[in-house]
Structures are given as C-alpha cells and as structure tokens.
Amino acid sequence: MAYSSSNLPNIIIVEDSPRLIAVYKRFFGLAGLKIAKIFPSGGELLEFFANSSKDRQNDSSLQNSVILLRNQSSAAVDLETASRLKTIDSRPKIVLVTNDLKSVPAIHHQTFEAILEKPFLMSDLFRTIERVTSSLRNLGGFKIFEGPEEVQNLLKEILVDDISKLCLCVDSKTFFDFLSVTKPYLSKAISDDVQVCLLTDIDADNFQFWKESFPNEDIEIRHINGIKLNFLIADVKHYLTIISSEEKIVQQVMYSNSDSLVSQERLLFESLWRKSIGLRKRLRELEQIPQPEKKLEFFNTNVDYITHRVNIVSGAKKSLDVCYEHEFAQQLRSPALRNAYQSAIRRGVKIRHITEVKSDNVSILTEMIKMRVDVHHLSGVKGGFAVNETNMICTAASDGPMSSETLDFRFPLLIQQAQWMFDSLWKSSTPAQIMINRMYPEKSPFENSVY
Hints:
This protein is of the alpha/beta class. The protein folds into three domains: 10-132, Response regulator (Rossmann fold, 3-Layer(aba) Sandwich); 142-286, Endonuclease, Chain A (2-Layer Sandwich), CATH 3.30.870.10; 296-439, Endonuclease Chain A (Endonuclease, Chain A, 2-Layer Sandwich), CATH 3.30.870.10. It has helices spanning 18-30, 42-50, 53-57, 75-88, 122-132, 148-159, 174-191, 207-213, 259-275, 279-288, 302-314, 335-346, 362-370, 412-428, 432-439; strands at 10-14, 34-39, 65-70, 93-98, 114-117, 142-146, 165-169, 195-200, 219-223, 231-234, 238-246, 249-256, 277-278, 296-299, 319-324, 350-355, 374-377, 384-387, 392-395, 406-409, 430-431. Strands 6-12-11-10-7-8-9-13 form an eight-stranded mixed beta sheet, with helices on both faces. It is elongated.
C-alpha cells in the first residue's frame, strides 16, 4: 500500500488491549501511517470530540482521519457511539472492528463507512482504509482527470475500492496505451479475485500478439468487430472513458460515479458482450482465414511501431537480430514488447542486439542482459532494423526517443542481406557489459569480466 504525502490519513484507535495496540502501531508504522489518538473506550472518544470544538476544527490530526472503533459489549453501544459522533463531527470515517458481524443489523451497516470482522489480515485493513478515504467516495456527477499521474492514481483508487467485477472495452489501438497504465493494478485486482472482462477488436494485425501474450484464463477476453469505444466499468460504482491519448500515454479521462450513468454504460457493455465471440474461437477463425501476405508496409505512428515490433519478435522461430540507435532502447519499457521478448526467450529464440551504450539507456540495457538478450555496443548507430527468419522492419533515424518512419517488408533477398549486414556489424561491436563497466562503473551491476 502506498500513499502520497497529500493524502495520508490519520488513524484514531478505540481499543483497550495493549497487545492489539502494539500490533497496530507496528504495522501502521511500516505502512507510513500515523496513529493520531488512542482511546480506551467509545465514551472517551465522544468526550474528546464533544469538548473544545474550536480547537478541534484546527486540529490537523483530525483532517482526513479514520476511526477504528472496536466492538464493545453490544452492537447497540457501537451504533450509539458512531451516531453521536456524526452529529458532533462528520469528518472522520468510522470503521467498525467486530468479533461478530451478525450482531450488527444490516439496516445499520450504513452507520459505518466499513465493517471488518475478526480475524482479518492487516492487508484487508489497509485496503479498507484506502477505500473509505478515497477522494472518489463523495464525488458526484463528472470529473475530468488529466495527465498520466492523475490517471494512474484514479485507476488505483478504482481498483482498491472493494470491487468484484471489472469490465473493459477498448479498441485495438488504444488497448496498448491502456495496458501500459493499468497493468500493475489489473494484476493486483486479478490476484484479489476480481473478475476481469475485456472486450476488444482482435484482427489479423494483432493476431500474433493475442495468441502469444494472453492465454491467461484469469481474464475473460472477447472479440467484436471494429469496436471504437474506450471505457471501463467497475461494479456499479465507477465509470471511466478515455478522452485523449498520445505517444502511448493515456492523457485525459472522464470519470463518473453517477448511478444512472454507470448503470447505463454497464447495460451497453453487456449488450456488446452478448454480440461478441470468445478469444479462442476468434483466434481459430483467424488461423483458418488465408491472410494475404503484405510484402511491404509503411507506417509512422508509435502505436503501429510497437505493434510491428511485437509481431516480429513473436514471429521469430530461432533467431532475432536487432540493431538500433540508443533512443529506441526506451521502447523496451512497453509491457506488450517486454512480454513478447520474454515469451520468445522461453521458446528458445536467440536474441542479439546492437546499440550504442549511453547514460540514458544503461538501466534498460542491463535489464535486457538479465533477460538473456545478448547485447553489444557500437558507436554512432543511426536508425535501425530488426530481422527474423521471414520478416524485417527498418527504421529511419529518430527526431526523438519515440518518433520515426518505418518500413515492414518480407522480401527474402533483403532479409538475407540484412542478416549478413548484422553479422558484419556484430563482429565489429563490443559486449555491452564491458562498455557499461568501462563507461558507467557507478551504474553497472556486473562484475568486471574477460570475454
């Protein structure tokens, strides 16, 4: 669990067990959370809030606070404490910690922001605190979130909000952008048994990616032709749609937790879902359809470039040779491309890379070497190319780390020439580990070695 300094909740504990208080102090300290107050009983909690109202308004320890109210002799005592506290000060969020959930009538569950039944894991408690202090909790209507950091924080808040089902609808181009910002949170949601349903367009251009990268049974994936919608539904709580994205980053989204809108968009998703077909069936369809081979294709968008890079890696049977200028190393941070490399290595594909070792690519080159990619250094490389047994992409020199114009072709003679050219450059290059140790010893994780 991670909080920013601007949204750290203050914890108030109502508990008289020294042993349990010690446990709370230890784990909250490890999580970076501050225990602002400790009261042995609900009565003393109410007395504190009832007195010195003026001082209480200025007490920073009560801003964004969460009260852990222990279950006392009866649920009625807890209900009375919570109800009276809300009339005195409505700001604190109250989490009831109880030995017996059945002792709290369902009609009174809304008195508390959350209820935790013992025994529970500390991770359950932290997740509950994140949920009740979420900035989305009391947001009504609509809000625009702008910038990668805001969007990522929004997605995190949605996915920690105790949801059971996540519905994603994204077109084939936007999927890669969306995956780049949601992957860590999707993985966490899946591990927490959230049901994830993904609806997208699976076609001949991205067939290889889906075949190699998503045999994952934890996500239910379905296909619908030509989908151009990009939105997310989490239970009946959250709706999010992408407004703009560029350079593989989701830049702007619209969010709403309006009941009517969320319900309406969920009905739309369910309608599209009924018209769609499963991933495996769609892949079988594409395998049976004779695809006209494209001998030559030109493209200049970053999304297309990553797609073609994924395809050439996924299509490699025994070998993949790549030569590129140092800026292009950053593209290996793409989750889709990284997954394709890892899958190829597991299949036994030998991958060789030639590039120029510079300070801005040392970390990613180090990661590649640890992935068992054979990386060599060559000074002054401009543009680049990648070639496997049947396919080659050739890229012009870039104007920046992610901009380029690229050709994708499948002419056997040109592929043979590219392989010969790569072998010639390989003989003139130096293992990257030697260059990293020599040029950037402070950044190198490698021991000096002789090749």
